[in-house]
Amino acid sequence: MKPPLCLRPWRCVDRIISFNMDDIQLHDHTQPLPKRPVSEARITDCRVMPWPDGTRVTVEMGLTPFSIFPSIDVSIMTPDGELLRYVSLVGAMERRPAPTMWLPRGIPRGTLLVAVMEVLGEDEPQQVVRAEFAVAGPIVRMSVQPPVGSS
Predict the structure, then answer these.
(1) Chain centroid to CA 85: how far?
(2) Based on the number of CB atoms within 10 Å of its own CB, is 58 exposed (0-12), middle (13-18) or buried (19 or more)?
(3) Which residue, 31, 109, 118, 112, is CA-closest to 70?
(4) Residue 48 and residue 59: Cα distance in Å, rounded?
(5) Domain assignment of residue 53, yes or no
(6) What's the pLDDT score for residue 8?
(7) Which residues make beta-bridge pairs with 13?
(8) Under 8 Å CB-to-CB from 104, ≥6 apart: which residues?
């Protein structure tokens, strides 16, 4: 006999709840996280998640803690630099923004594209991160190294 549904906290109705351990931010709550100004906001990691049907791509970015919301531009381009899709996150409020963009129709599965993420500064981008991915291909995970000389 199965226990009642309420005694199985890892289940929600008949679906198993799943999560990525990287998405859980563990820290000592007695000491607040350091908040940086927008000029020090950086992308720490990213995941480019092409949808299996080849119609969309989700670009998820991990950001450093910040006190003023940074603005981020995300572009999908061909390796030759042709812009296919573009979204601008003005004042990104989340620590892990993840915009999903429709890809143009007719792009064959397996075609290589580039996701370009730019943390915007006053005059020019503060940081540019590029990640290659294949349409309807596997998820691309990337850790971003801080620039030399930064803490």
Answers:
(1) 16
(2) middle
(3) 118
(4) 5
(5) yes
(6) 47
(7) none
(8) 84, 85
Instruction: Residue 150: count other Cβ atoms within 10 Å of its Cβ.
Output: 8
Angle, CA 43 vertex, CA 110 and CA 82 arms, to 5°: 40
Contact 145, 43 (CB under 8 A): no
**Sheet of 140-143: strands edge to edge?**
100-102, 56-63, 43-50, 140-143
Distance (Å, rounded) from C-alpha 1 to C-alpha 135? Answer: 46
Please tell me whether residue 28 adopts helix, strand or coil conformation.
coil
Q: pLDDT exceeding 90 applies to what percent of the chain? A: 54
Indicate the number of domains in the chain: 1
Two tokens, residue 12 = 């929600």
Whole domain around residue 78: which residue ranges? 33-143
Residue 77 lies in a domain: yes
Distance CA 135, CA 95 (A): 26
- 135 to each of 48, 53, 124, 126, 129, how far by Cα in Å? 11, 9, 30, 28, 19
pLDDT digits over 26-36, tens only? 555 566 666 66
